[in-house]
Amino acid sequence: MNTRDAATNGIPPFAWAPKGADTGSLSLRDWLAHLAQTGRVATIDKPVALEHELAAIAKRLDGTQAAFFTQPGGHAMPVVSGFMSKRAWIAEAMGVDESALLARFSAAAAAPLESKLVGREDAPCQQVVHTSDIDLHALLPIPTHSEHDNGPYITAGLVIARNPRTGVQNVSINRIQVHGRDRMAILLLPRHLYAFQRAAEEAGDALDVAIAIGVDPLTMLASQAITPIDHDELEIAGALHGAPLPVAQCVTNGVHVPAFAEIVIEGRILPNVREPEGPFGEFPKYYSAKEAREVIEVTAVTHRRDPVFHTIIPAEMEHLLLGGIPREATLLAHLQRSHPAVKDVHLSVGGVCRYHLWVQFDKKREGEAKNVILCAFGAHYDIKQVVVVDTDVDVHDPAEIEWAIATRFQADRDLVVIDGAQGSPLDPSTTVGQPDDAPAHLQGVSAKMGLDATRPVVYPAHVFTRVRIPGQDTVDLDALVAADNRAFDAYLSRDHG
Ligand code: MN
Question: How far is the CA of 48 from the centre of ligand 1 (A)?
Fold first, then answer.
């Protein structure tokens, strides 16, 4: 599909697509080339240690430039990090303005496109195949990120598996600790991959998986869509690309992987095997404790010629936005089902793009903002604080939210507190007063706080009228401001007596 056809189907043109490219095949390399052309890649062409040093450099560059390491830990294989660490870059990758980002993501999630199975000759991810004597540490430059991490972790791997009952695939990003030559421990949160693994385990079977590393930004984003079970996230990636995603069958199992991935690790989650995993520095900027986790035995590693390894620096912007934007799209759609007057939402960066939700709402009747708050708490257990503001407040600007709370909120009247609900088990404040070994079913109990920072629907003249200066948005500064300061200098040099 060329750009012109794509445009007529409502798919935005992609500034980063090579001329005449099949947009389904857009790859990480296309995006990195685009970033480099626009000064957004920092190349570190010196030896860099995989333990901490690489992550420290990438963290410093996060949100400004992608970091590209040519000599990570003595490997010939480069590492890249931070190529989607700004909201504006993600909108650019999707081919839309930032204001249309959530709507575009929701539209793709609602209209997935079936993937296109290609043969090995058309699957760059299988140009090089390793099936025997696998040593992950020798094959791949896997960094150790944070101070107390228990060794190297794969943080940007799309874990793909099939539902043993229905055969439908699922994609998620899970943290994966590499603690053996061909052995890894994986964190399974109680979502779709977890359900597949438990179903396989009950039957005494291993669960075949593939871990795709180094995919384009659209496929990364699609992997984080919050969908019902048995919705293959790769089909949402296809919809975001505006063309079916080419996928290849793994060489040692039946899982289908993005054909243009840089690297694929194939393996099986073993039944009834658990090994220690952690500690690991997670998105709330705290560590998860060491616990017994499911184990992947690796059966193959395949990759492109000259592959690049992607690592996400935990808790930095790439990590936060990748989780945050698909959640925002889901939360917006969820709130709008009950409250069509909800206009926009934002998961704030200070709330680690998970816990604090800001909602812009066109209130027409008193009390409605509190209904919106309650609806948001029900949408996802991670939501801990909700602020509802009027349509004249920009929900993407923390100073605007604080202003609305400062001037439109009274704690005795406008505060909603719910105690003892389920929250994020990764929020350390939920552990206060609990024993260290609290069982999983007692973890994550959290209060919820909602702030109605909307003004009354009807108010006395000027009381809640935001100060504005007529013309502030329309004056033509280019026409009015002189090209140089000659007139000002002349004023200064005048003899003022
Ligand atoms: Mn899923």
Answer: 36
